[in-house]
Amino acid sequence: MIRIAVLVAIAAAIAGATWYFWPSPPLLPPAATPAFAVPAPPTGPVHPVPAVDPGPKPLPTLRESDATLLEALVGLAGAGPIANLLFPEDLVRRIVATIDNLPREAYAARLNPARPVPGPMKITGKGDSLAIAPGNAARYEPYVRALEGVDPKRLAATYFRLYPLFQQAYVELGYPNGYFNDRVVEVIDHLLDAPDAEVPVALAVPHVLYEYADPDLEGLSAGRKLMMRMGTRNESRVKARLRAIRAELSENPPPR
């Protein structure tokens, strides 16, 4: 028992000495607390819309807005052009969806607020000489004339008054953080930058439908293709009116 006690004491002494004289590991600085990025506050619209008094009556709901918008459009362009050129149902949503899609490859015809241009495309020539006929521009004349008949200042005032409806439709379209007026100005700039095609515009029929023979033209957006189909003179008239409208919708000048 004495020997065992002596051995235990010796072992304890060795362990204590080892612990005391063994070099301690260097102290490491405390781990840095990971920095979490603070989301930037929303910057707001690029082209803000002024607050406008809706008038003696509050704005209708989006679902019930057709009558209000039609009345406003008739006041701007007249009853005849509105009845002949526009669909009267679900107008706000149709306008928002079509404007949003014009810079894309295609847009849904079923959502277009404008009635289809009457008659087939007028063409001239065949084979390698196939092209859009000069007379095709006449098919677009009623639409261009109606646009020219709308005063840009009155149009902007009406649009600003009804803007909450357009913004709601834009959010519902899938842009919860977007601003519809920013998209409108962006699309106008896109259309204003449409190229001036050489006349006549050559066509091809690789399958069933007509296509532009020039691959660069065929690769244009749906909106720019529309600008070219309506003819050089009509395109110039539409661009002039779009510039005037844009000036009313934004204080920022268009990009150069």
Q: What features would you describe in this structure?
A:
- The protein has 256 residues and is mainly alpha-helical.
- The chain is 47% helix and 3% strand.
- The strands form two sheets. A two-stranded antiparallel ribbon has the order 1-2. The protein has a two-stranded antiparallel ribbon with strand order 3-4.
- A hairpin with a 6-residue loop joins strand 1 (123-124) and strand 2.
- Helix 8 (180-192) runs antiparallel to helix 11 (232-249).
Question: What is the topological layout?
Answer:
Blueprint: H1 2-21, H2 66-77, H3 79-85, H4 91-101, E1 123-124, E2 131-132, H5 141-148, H6 152-161, H7 163-172, H8 180-192, E3 203-204, E4 211-212, H9 215-218, H10 222-229, H11 232-249
Antiparallel strand pairs: 1-2, 3-4
Number of helices: 11
Helix content: 40-55%
Main pleated-sheet profile: 2 strands, antiparallel
Rg: 34 Å
> How many beta-strand runs?
4
The termini sit apart by: 102 Å
Structural class: mainly alpha
The unreliable regions are 5-9, 11-34
The outline comes out as globular
Identify the quaternary structure here: single chain
Number of domains: 1
Order of helices and strands: HHHHEEHHHHEEHHH
Give the strand order, joined by hyphens, for the main sheet: 1-2
Average per-residue pLDDT, rounded, comes to: 86
Beta-strand residue fraction: under 5%
